[in-house]
Write a structure and sequence with these properties.
The protein is an alpha/beta fold. It has helices at 16-33, 58-69, 90-100, 114-121, 137-151, 169-180, 209-212, 237-244, 248-251, 274-277, 285-313, and strands at residues 47-52, 73-77, 104-109, 125-131, 158-162, 184-188, 204-206, 218-221, 259-261.
Length: 314
């Protein structure tokens, strides 16, 4: 299988073949998760530690369920109650983790590059669960799996990513992944929420929702990342929804069979109309959550295989 990686730190390092390998394995885990017996022994005897330096509901729960269904011993490290809150450095934390001899380390951190630094210092496989504004690779992979299952393909689709692009690691990972798979990507949002140098990513940029959504196959909405904002990026939430919030009228400009996505958590009435978010004929938001468990199971299996192979060769 084409996945020669020790860690999963970002989409940037993955080839199209590695992406397809992971998605194909995730398809098998979708079937397992829908069966009566949802358990496997792939990670039996291995230890998984989840370290979340930022609050998380979906991602942390998804990784925990994924590890337990694969048979791993899973520990959630309460960072706020740990020595880190008392001033311990990330390097000292890595040394402590090495002494515990984990096999898989899942990390979310508010600073870009922190997960990569940990990966350089620990002796186990590391999965990036989101670092600052940098990347959120498993979210992009689960989004891609959701698109492939809904559209029957992953190439030559017109995909619109809408909202707070500047502060979104989800947007960054999806732009890279969907670009690698030869899709046409449009970014829609106010200039204040577009990162500098965005033209270098090979995307089209729109300020008008109706123009940007014209004939697209996939509409991916993003929430306003208020915790990463340090100024007035929008006039008001009401005005933002009027111009950039997704509702039925704006969606009517997309392809008739366009799907609606959102990585969560959703701000209903701010970036998306609640009725549309719950529309089972257009929204695949619930499917995204389901695909998240399967994708994370696949990622951990592939990394565990490589880890065990390297240990066997040592």
């Amino acid at each position: 299988m084409s996945f020669p990686h020790r860690h999963l730190l970002g989409i940037e390092q993955l080839s199209p073949d590695a992406i397809v390998t992971l998605l194909d394995l995730a398809e098998r885990y979708v079937d397992l998760n829908r069966s009566q017996n949802k358990h496997s022994s792939v990670l039996e005897g291995l230890t998984q530690i989840n370290m979340f330096f930022e609050n998380s509901t979906r991602t942390q729960a998804s990784f925990e369920i994924a590890g337990k269904r694969l048979g791993a011993d899973v520990m959630n490290m309460e960072v706020r109650a740990s020595s880190i809150s008392k001033g311990e450095t990330l390097i000292d934390t890595a040394m402590t983790l090495n002494a515990m001899q984990p096999d898989l380390l899942v990390v979310r951190h508010p600073h870009s590059g922190a997960v990569d630094l940990l990966a350089q210092k620990v002796h186990c496989a590391v999965l990036n669960a989101g670092d600052g504004r940098h990347e959120h690779p498993t979210q992009a992979l689960l989004d891609t799996l959701t698109i492939r299952r809904s559209k029957g393909r992953l190439h030559r689709l017109r995909i619109a990513i809408c909202g707070d692009i500047a502060h979104s690691r989800v947007a960054r990972s999806n732009i890279m992944l969907l670009g690698k798979m030869e899709n046409r990507i449009r970014l829609i949002g106010p200039p204040t929420l577009m990162p500098s140098g965005i033209a270098d990513f090979g995307v089209e940029v729109f300020e008008d929702m109706r123009e940007g959504l014209r004939d697209v196959d996939v509409v991916m909405m993003l929430r306003l990342q208020k915790e990463r904002m340090d100024g007035g990026f929008i006039p008001s939430e009401r005005e933002y929804f009027h111009r950039f919030g997704l509702d039925a009228e704006k969606l009517s400009h997309a392809a008739p069979d366009a799907i609606v996505m959102h990585p969560g958590p959703m701000n209903r009435g701010v970036e998306i109309d609640g009725t549309l978010a719950d529309d089972i004929n257009r929204s695949v938001i619930r499917e995204q959550v389901e695909m998240g468990v399967a994708v994370r199971m696949a990622a951990m299996e592939l990394l565990a295989r490589n880890l065990q192979a390297s240990r066997g060769a040592a």
